[in-house]
């Protein structure tokens, strides 16, 4: 079983644009790894360096423990699936799938066995004789996947393979790719700018920004303990709310002044603030870690919740949940409610913030406390 290891990999284009810096990571056997981040953060460059489509400026790459840094793409035994499918328009789906194998002089019976297997996995049987223009976007994507599968590579590299599909098909193909991964039991390295794709499919996620890794972890790890403000804001939808807070010590007690209110910091919250020794912090609250107080009596300290006055501006009803946009003092917040509540734009209500689920970050380094 294959592993892929990147050691301090760097890429600068024309010795000017630094696209990837000090990228180190070992991708485990059978792992579904997703590289995610905003446009231009270096995801595709990283993937293309693994594929051998882009040279590595500095650092080392190992596949199965073997140094392949300077080896050409065709000797790396890796298959790449692109966003635009890159199918030959004049060839049928079948011909597209077998073209690479014929070039490699794979015996005919072996080619037929592999195509048959891939066609079953991807449900392509009836489409094999069609040309790309006679196929829908989703079908073309399946042919592109089929062409990768028949190569029986050590790893599949995918660059935004679902971006050209409509929203519904994307959701469907996400499930299909997860099933395909389980079935093939091979490394998948998948590039996307969409954090939902990353969260739903990945065993581990690598979050990148400006060519650098921000955090590596399972979907639960990066969601529950974001390493910095960027990750907190990037993972999760709608994004985490951020507010500046002031830490005030009164004797042994510790208070957080935030959005013009005094928050009671107790338990682990107080410990984290005390240990930081900071006077200013960045407070992160996920939209789903707040509720609307139902009655005036819904109280604060006994339930580990902080009560805040909330001016409701916009209510978005989404069926399964609702998003309430509004302000607490000068701060704009979004609250996600998972059940229907009578709330209207213009109302003045109270929020209950779950104090055990708030995040603290350093105000300058933006690192998690
Ligand atoms: P992403 O896939 O995250 O959108 P890329 O890896 O494509 O990002 O690009 C990372 C950075 O490298 C960007 O600043 C981009 O403009 C630059 N870049 C990408 N390809 C080239 C190239 N062939 N020549 C010069 N700069 C490039």
UniProtKB/TrEMBL annotation:
GO biological process, one term: carbohydrate transport
Superkingdom to which the source organism belongs: Bacteria
One of the record's GO cellular component terms: ATP-binding cassette (ABC) transporter complex, substrate-binding subunit-containing
Record-linked CDD domains: ABC_MalK_N (cd03301)
Classification via PROSITE patterns: ABC_TRANSPORTER_1, ABC_TRANSPORTER_2
Keywords per UniProt: ATP-binding, Nucleotide-binding, Transport
GO MF entries: ABC-type transporter activity; ATP binding; ATP hydrolysis activity
SMART domains referenced in this protein's UniProt entry, alphabetically: AAA
Domain spans labelled ABC transporter: 4-235
NCBIfam families: PRK11650.1
PANTHER family reported in the protein's UniProt record: MALTODEXTRIN IMPORT ATP-BINDING PROTEIN MSMX, OSMOPROTECTIVE COMPOUNDS UPTAKE ATP-BINDING PROTEIN GGTA
Name under which the protein is recorded: Carbohydrate ABC transporter ATP-binding protein, CUT1 family
The species this protein was found in: Anoxynatronum buryatiense
Organism classification: Bacteria, Bacillati, Bacillota, Clostridia, Eubacteriales
């Amino acid at each position: 079983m294959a592993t892929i290891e990147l050691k301090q990999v760097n890429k600068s284009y024309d010795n000017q644009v630094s696209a990837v810096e000090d990228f180190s990571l070992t991708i485990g056997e059978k792992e579904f790894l997703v590289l995610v981040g905003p446009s231009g953060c270096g995801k595709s460059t990283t993937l293309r360096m693994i594929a051998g489509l882009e040279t590595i400026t500095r650092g080392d790459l190992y596949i199965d423990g073997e140094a392949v840094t300077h080896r050409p793409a065709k000797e790396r035994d890796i298959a790449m699936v692109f966003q635009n499918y890159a199918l030959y328009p004049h060839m049928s789906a079948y011909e597209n799938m077998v073209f690479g194998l014929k070039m490699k002089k794979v015996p005919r019976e072996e080619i037929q066995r592999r195509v048959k297997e891939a066609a079953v996995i991807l449900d392509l049987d009836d489409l094999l004789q069609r040309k790309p223009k006679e196929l829908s976007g989703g079908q073309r994507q399946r042919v592109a996947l089929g062409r990768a599968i028949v190569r029986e590579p050590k790893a599949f590299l995918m660059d935004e393979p679902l971006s050209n599909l409509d929203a519904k098909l994307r959701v469907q193909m996400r499930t299909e790719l997860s099933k395909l991964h389980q079935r093939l039991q091979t490394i998948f390295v998948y590039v996307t700018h969409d954090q939902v794709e990353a969260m739903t499919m990945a065993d581990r996620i690598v979050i990148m920004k400006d060519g650098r890794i921000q955090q590596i972890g399972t979907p639960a790890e990066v969601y529950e303990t974001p390493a910095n403000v960027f990750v907190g804001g990037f993972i999760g939808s709608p994004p985490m709310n951020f507010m500046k807070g002031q830490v005030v010590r009164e004797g042994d007690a510790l208070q957080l002044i935030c959005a013009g209110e005094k928050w009671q910091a107790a338990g682990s919250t107080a410990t984290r603030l005390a240990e930081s020794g900071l006077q200013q912090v960045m407070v992160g609250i996920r939209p789903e870690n707040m509720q609307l107080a139902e009655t005036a009596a819904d109280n604060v300290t006994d339930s580990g919740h902080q009560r805040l006055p909330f001016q409701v501006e916009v209510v978005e009803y989404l069926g399964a949940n609702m998003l309430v946009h509004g302000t607490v003092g000068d701060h704009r917040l979004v609250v996600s409610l998972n059940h229907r509540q009578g709330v209207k734009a213009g109302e003045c209500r109270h929020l209950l913030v779950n104090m055990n689920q708030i995040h603290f970050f350093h105000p300058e380094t933006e690192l998690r406390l």
